[in-house]
Specification:
It contains seven helices and seven strands; from the N terminus they run βαβαβααβαβαββα. Strands 3-2-1-4-5-6-7 form a seven-stranded mixed sheet. It has helices spanning 14-23, 45-52, 62-65, 68-77, 94-99, 123-131, 167-190, and strands spanning 3-9, 32-39, 57-59, 80-85, 104-108, 136-143, 153-160. It is an alpha/beta fold. It is globular and about 50 Å long. 37% of the residues are buried. It folds into two domains: 1-101, Rossmann fold; 108-180, 3-Layer(aba) Sandwich (Rossmann fold), CATH 3.40.50.170.
Length: 202
């Protein structure tokens, strides 16, 4: 039986594209598929990427996303079992965190609890990491709760921050970690295999 993922995204869609390619093509032998992308910005790059890969996209504003009469039937229509946030900048409404408790995950571009919370996303995080003189940064995959970046941490991977690093170079390192690990973590969560969320990180 195929398990369906809905990706929520707001931006360029590099993570969403990587996830779709990982799960929706024959080279990956799994019964997990990305069935839907939900986007809150009509100009977001993720729309074209998902469309090119044959995944339906629904562009919905904040009001629509916060409306259970819209979101619950939509997710049910696509038989959604797991919601994956991939650069999604809105707070997930409480009715979804309750209905999909333990089945909504997010990736954050720092080692939470450091550099998390409202307004801490993308390049804002990398700039803060460099300015703070951090020697190590990384990614965190966590369950989604009703507070920004406060859900249970499922997985972290790290990368060194050098004296010569800039926010741009840190961003490249983080993207490499995201591409490598996020699909594997999603697969473990979808298979309810949380006890084995451990991968070689070198």
């Amino acid at each position: 039986m195929t398990r369906h993922i809905a990706i929520f995204a707001s931006g360029n869609g590099s993570n969403a594209e990587n996830i779709i390619r990982h799960f929706n093509y024959p080279v990956h032998d799994t019964d997990i598929k990305v069935a839907l992308v939900v986007c809150n910005r009509a100009d977001a790059g993720v729309i074209g990427k998902a469309d090119n890969l044959g995944v339906p996209v629904m562009v919905l504003g904040r009001t629509e996303i916060n409306n259970p009469d819209i979101m619950e039937p939509l997710l049910a229509e696509y038989k959604t079992e797991l919601i994956v946030l991939a650069g999604f900048l809105l707070m997930v409404p409480e009715f979804l965190t309750e209905r999909y408790a333990g089945r909504i995950i997010n990736i954050h571009p720092s080692l939470l609890p450091k550099f998390g919370g409202k307004g801490m996303y993308g390049r804002h995080v990398h700039k803060a990491v460099v300015e703070a003189g951090e020697r190590v940064t990384g990614i965190t995959v966590h369950m989604v709760s009703n507070e920004y970046d406060k859900g249970e941490i499922l997985f972290q991977a790290t990368t060194e921050v050098l004296d010569t690093d800039t926010p741009d170079s840190v961003e490249k390192k983080i993207h490499e970690l995201e591409r490598k690990y996020f699909p594997m973590v999603i697969e473990k969560v979808a298979e309810n295999d949380l006890l084995n969320l451990s991968f070689p990180t070198t």
